[in-house]
Amino acid sequence: MAGYSNGNGVTSPIGSMSRRMTGKNANRYSVSAMYSMAAEQDTELEDDLSRAQKRLRELKSRISAVSKKNFVLERDVRYLDQRISLLIQNKMALEERRDIETRLDDVEEEEGHYPDERKLTLYSNLFFLLQHEPRHIALLCRLISLSQVDSLLQTVMFTLYGNQYESREEHLLLTMFQIVLSHQFDTSTDFGNLLRANTPVSRMMTTYTRRGPGQSYLKSVLAERINSLIEHRELNLEINPVKVYEQMVSQFEDENNGELPEGMAKVVTPEEAAENPDVQAIIAPRLTMLMEIANSFLHTIIDSLETVPYGIRWICKQIKSLSKRRFPDASDTAICSLIGGFFFLRFINPAVVTPQSYMLVDATPAKHPRRTLTLIAKMLQNLANKPSYAKEQYMITLNPFVENNKTRINQFLNNLCEVSDFYDTLEMDQYMALSKKDLQINITINEMYNTHALLGQHLDQMAPSEKAHLRILLEDLGQAPDQVSRKENRTMELPLFSRWEVPIQDLTTAFAGEGNVTHSDILYMEAKSIFVNLIRSIPGSNDKLPIDLEALAERAATTKDAALVRKGIKVKEMLRELVEANILDRADGYRLMQEEVAAELVHLGNLRDKVLLETRSLDAVYRNISDHNDYLKQQLEQYKAYLQNVRKSSGNDKSSTGVGVITVGGKEKKPAKATVQGPYRFTHAQLEKEGIIVESNVPEARRPNIYFNITSPSPGAFIIALHYKGREKAILEMDLKIDDLLEKHKDNKNLLDLEYVQLNVPKVLALLNKVFTRRKN
Question: Where is the composition biased (Polar residues) (predicted)?
Answer without folding.
Answer: 1-15
